[in-house]
Amino acid sequence: MKEAVCKAIGARGRAVPRFPEISLGVSSSSSSSNGGGGGETSRAPVLTFFGQTGADIVALGVRRHHVSVSHDGDLAIANVILES
Questions:
Q1: How many domains does the chain have?
Q2: How many alpha carbons lie under 13 Å from residue 14 in its C-beta half-sphere?
Q3: pTM of the model
């Protein structure tokens, strides 16, 4: 996932992200769908940027980001999109 962040940032400028300044967490939100009474919990992956990497993200004009993570056995893949 951190490599995907580096590639996304590298595609936008000369900033050099630092791996310890990038964190992957999950958001937890409840929503009810189809007008039903029961709520479903969604746990979407969320990126957090700290330190110089966080400052670089702001300087690059990034306003939103999206991350998708998947795995199967020992293999994992991540996609990161930065929006300005």
A1: 1
A2: 0
A3: 0.73
For residue range 14-61, list pLDDT tens digits in order. 778 889 999 999 987 655 555 555 566 778 899 999 999 999 899 989
Look at residue 16 and tell me if it is in a domain: yes
In angstroms, rounded to a whole number, what is the distance separating the alpha carbons of residues 75 and 1? 12
CATH number, position 43: 3.90.470.20
Contact 29, 21 (CB under 8 A): no
Structure tokens at 20: 């310890």
In the three-class reduction of DSSP (H, G, I as helix; E, B as strand; rest coil), residue 75 is classed as strand
Domain containing 59: what range? 2-29+39-83
